Every structure is written in C-alpha cells, then in structure tokens.
Amino acid sequence: MKRNWKDIKWIFEPDGSLIDLYVQEVSLNDWKKVIRLLNKKFKVKYNETNQIDENYLIKYLTDMVGEMESKSASIFLNEIQINCHFFLSDQIEFDIDPKEINSISDFESIEKFMIDISTEVDNQVILTGENNPKFPLVKIDSNKKINKVLSESEVNQYRENQNSILNRIKSIKTNIEMKLAPNRFKEKLLKSTNELYKSTKKEENVW
Fold this sequence. Notes:
The protein is of the alpha+beta class. Helices cover 39% and strands 21% of the residues. The protein has an eight-stranded antiparallel sheet with strand order 2-3-4-5-1-6-7-8. The radius of gyration is 19 Å and the shape is globular.
C-alpha cells in the first residue's frame, strides 16, 4: 500500500515522548512465537548477545515472586532501533524513538515489522503514542486484511468524541460517588495512585 509521507510524518514529530507498539490479549505461546521470530529474522541485541533468551523470559513472565531480573531487547531495522519490553504475560510491548523515523521508507520498515508480528501471532498490532494503548494511530491485522493509518483530522475527531462522552460519564459517576459514598470515593483515589501496570483489552481501544 503506497502512502504519502506528508500524511504520516505528524505521528513521528519528536516531542520528548516515545512511540509504542502493542499486541494485546496474548498468551505465553504468542510470546514464544514472537521471540523466535525476532531471533530468526532480525538483528537483535539482548544482554550482550544476538539472541533473546526465550527460556529465561518465559520464566520471568510467569514469575510470581518477583525476584528475577527484568530484561529488555533491542531489534534493529537498519538504523531504526525498536525496544522490546517484557512487562506483562498477556501484552507484548515495543517502543521506538520517533526521531528515528524520518521518511516513508522508515515508516514502511516499521509497517513491515508490524505485519510480520501480526502474521506470526494472528493478532492485531497497534502503534500508539507513549503509554496510550487505547488509542491506535496505526492498526495492522494481517489475517483480517486491516492496515490503517489515522489521519490527523481523524485523530482529532476521535479525541473530541471520546473526551465528550467520557467526561460526561465521569462527571455523573463522580458526583454520585461523592454524594452517596464520600469515604469510598477517597479510598478509590488513594488506590488509583498505587495500581499496578495492567494490560489493555482490544475492546478498550477507541477503534
């Protein structure tokens, strides 16, 4: 699919934040498939080696004690570095410095990477702003023939609709909670500041 760089480059304008890639609702078997794909097809750097340690990372992802050392891996698409993080067993996450994406060919390298991952695990792969897994800017699902990049105007429209609906719901819900259960509302605020990092379900995405 041929695209025009001027329609895409706004996604990668540097603002101090990263670009994230997510595969949501995955299994440990999906993790194994992705690790094997990365080791086989791409230039990889992991703990001073060029192979990701599948056995260690599967154990780490299922470690309930929390005593294993966290790891990350870097994948290189020519001059573009993609970092893979092993945060959650049910969500695969990568990040990219947007300063490394400067042309349509750079974008096509990322797009091809997303297609490879999507094909391997039969799941959608999304590209989002940093820590924003509910708002895909690019969505690829190879088996469902989905390959879409949002325009800037589409993003603004989604944000306006989302903010309008969510703000109304939150405002109503907050007012009810504050009036009917003020102590519970305070407890909820305190709890939210200490919540663990959780995965995002595909149904939570805005599109």
